Amino acid sequence: MKAKAITLNVNGRRHQVTLFPNVTLLEALRDLNYTDVKNGCEKGDCGACAVELNGRIINSCLVLAWQADGARILTNAGLGTMESPHPLQEAFADAGAVQCGYCTSGMIIAAKALLDENPNPSETEIREAISGNLCRCTGYSQIINAVQMTAEKMMQQKAQE
Amino acid sequence: MTAKGKALPRLDLPPLRQVGRPLRRVDALGKAVGTTVYAGDFTMPDMLHAKVFRSSEPSAHIKQLNVNKARALPGVACVLTADDLPDGKLITDMPGQTGQERRKESDAPVLAARGVRFVGEPIALVAAETLAIAEQALKLIEIEYEVLPGVFDPLEAIKPGAPIIHKPDNIVASWKIRKGNAEAGLAAADLIVENTFRVPFIDHAYIEPEAGVAWMDDQDVINIRVCTQVVEHFRSIAQAVGVPHNKVHVRGTMIGGGFGGKEDITVEIFLALLTKETRRPVRLAYTREESILAHSKRHPFIITHRTGVKNNGRITGAKINMISDSGAYPYLSPYVLLYATVTSCGPYRIDNLTVDSVSVATNNPFASAFRGFGGAQAAVAYEQQMDEMAKALAMDPLELRKINYLKTGDFNAIGQQIKSAIWLEEEATQALAALGKKESVSDDAIKIGQGFATTMQSYGRIMWFHDTSRSWVGIEQDGTIVVRCGAPDLGAGQANSLCLIAAEVLGVSLTDVTFYNSDSAVTPLAGTTTATRQLYMSGNATLKAAKMVREVLLDRAAQHFREKPNNLDLADNKVFIKSDPQQWLSLADLSKMCAVDGLKLQHLALFAAPFADKLNPENLQGDIFPDFTFSAHAIEVAVDTKTGEITVLKSVGCHDVGRAINPIAVEGQIQGGSAQGIGYALMEEVQVRDGVTRTPSLSEFLIPTAKDLPTTRAIILESGTGVGPFGAKGIGEPALTPAAPAVANAVANAIGVRIHNLPLTPERVLAALDRAKRG
Prior knowledge:
The structure holds two protein chains of two kinds. Chain A has five helices and five strands; from the N terminus they run ββαβββαααα. By secondary structure, chain A is of the alpha+beta class. In chain A, helix 2 (87-95) crosses helix 5 (141-160). Chain A is globular. Chain B has three domains: 43-148 and 205-294, Alpha-Beta Complex (Aldehyde Oxidoreductase, domain 3), CATH 3.90.1170; 301-462 and 614-774, Aldehyde Oxidoreductase, domain 4 (2-Layer Sandwich), CATH 3.30.365; 468-608, Aldehyde Oxidoreductase, domain 4. Helices cover 26% and strands 25% of the residues of chain B. In chain B, the strands form eight sheets. In chain B, strands 3-7-1-14-11-12-13 form a seven-stranded mixed sheet, sandwiched between helices. In chain B, strands 9-17-16-15-10 form a five-stranded mixed sheet. In chain B, strands 18-26-27-30 form a four-stranded mixed sheet, sandwiched between helices. The radius of gyration of chain B is 27 Å and the shape is globular. At the A-B interface, helix 2, helix 3, helix 4 and helix 5 of A face helix 1 and helix 16 of B.
């Protein structure tokens, strides 16, 4: 098969790229310098490459770039910046949820996907939601704390609005 | 189990303003927003992509290797084999450090020349314009093996007639402890308990596979940007590549997890060779499968304890035998075995002790450093043995331990006096108390059990290594602080601790400190991030350098205020008179004054650990480690006797860390370390059959997910008696060590029968229950 021109909308930016059909979304994103999307296994085992595709969490190593043609893609770096971090990013930094940081971007995407659906999750629901994302440093507890802290903060903010 | 502890001695820790507070780590936000750049994220203009051609045979002679077709493939820039190399050895040892005569020719070759000794051994390197071309070139490499008999079991490998991996025999290291009279000790016992325990190969399974990029610059320096625990490998890399030491520059990145697996050289020499050959930048990143095949493993051990004990619980003597599988090349096996040997009998006073340990070469994947470094394997054995003895004596496991615990001032197995606090009894008591009562279940098939383990794990390197670290601290003219220290940061907060120490001493907030680290040429060399040594070593070096800067600042301020320096203090970015804090000067103004006077505002400090002579490997009596961390972990499990499935219900780690520099980070170490320990106990095993790794992915080599663990409650005790800064002890490795034996003891408590081999899989649980039923 030949290469085809596709459009990837990543973090609000449009990229026109010409790719062969066997290129994964993970490879395409990293080639576009979205290096917050991490390559940990390329088999869907670790979750380090998790991104949102049209609002749904996926492992970008298991999706072909062609399948994402025209779709909205959100990576962790698209959620916030050093100057203006997303509440999850802030909570991860404060709760000790970040150690080596390699799983963090995928983990935050998984946490965001959960909170979008369920703004007040139980510990069990958080564990379920991040169970596709491996972390070898933290034992997950501080990650769970960070998600709980964020949920509380976001609910308080909503109540005030 | 009883839970009654003694009161701890009162401590007089100096008041600190920032150390001990749960502050956000300096590296946390960059990682949280995805800005931190890791080794695999770098690209360069005109960059080539590398791949490694590896052995598919565990033991074979290479009859023929033909890379001509690969070289001829359009887009291939270069293919290298052993023929193209200077005498390339992958040296993982510093000269003469083992304390034993090193085996000649046992170091791994960079590329195999005549034969291969394990599946995954590197044979050829390819660099090409694209990764796809490099992968295609690998398929064009032609190799013909003459398969040789291999040996895959260390017990087989020490038998006469076994295939020899490195001449003259397969024993690559051995250590002995001879203390008192073990025979007489055993003879004096009322009861002798003997057990053999086994632990498997484990992969570090950091989420970041090994990666790097290298290039040559206009001074002919080979620059290597890589995730490594040891930037000081630049010397070994230079030697292997055949250039002077000062022509290799290792620029370490933030590391996506190390745990010992990035302690040995991984991609560095390959990158250096390819960039030197092509004069172009080269990138090499391992896939997960390649990572599992190519890097070291935690050593499997077979450990036998024969322990004599009086009816009153006092241990009279012990004989311990340890065999570790070093795999195809020794790497750090001699040291791992040494750590295991030194802690083989645990934190107990045993006056009559014999330990015989050997590390044995096989055609399995090579084993080397892994968090715990032999101490973790030793603990799995000695803490299960303690519980088995308690069972045989019908004694409470904590009571038995209390009778035998080392106390501060006692001499351990190698006759080294322990000068720091030993709070094992308190730790075990607190951990068990936090565990609380066993949960009750209505289902008869579910058995609930509790267990604990208490362990000792060294921090800091072996004293005959003569370990040193350097750190540089400076104040800028606006009062902000710079720390430069070569210490690599694995993600455990190494850099943050150094920043926090400088902030504390110089009276600025943590956000006023910027750090530069992990660079073999431009940051002062700080040694390896291994052996739980960076807080101790580089923390002390940073403390020393920061104090030197502080002294200059206070002396200059003393002139200004016409006060004695002792009457002044630094806090909140100011210098002030202690008795009259309204009289102050900003650090920015003070540092400008110092600059006007030409004073030295940047200081480089060296911290040297206490040095000692090598110990005699035939008896190992003397001082060997700067200090130890003593720890307890308690676990409650539910075992489903119908399926064999084990669920960890509760987990508590209690550690005397001396002083918690950053309590959130300490809690993170305890929770993360114990997660690895629980994984070790329950599910982790790199399965190797006839030298072939059967679990080369994270869906086959299983590590705990968020659903496999409860929250480990971290109880942090602070004796202030460590040799680190502000009385800190190390926690990186100690966090892991007690968790696995605690799980094993809890499972034995639940089902009433001991399973001697890790991991405690459902199959093993069911088999053990079946054995017990059949009597």
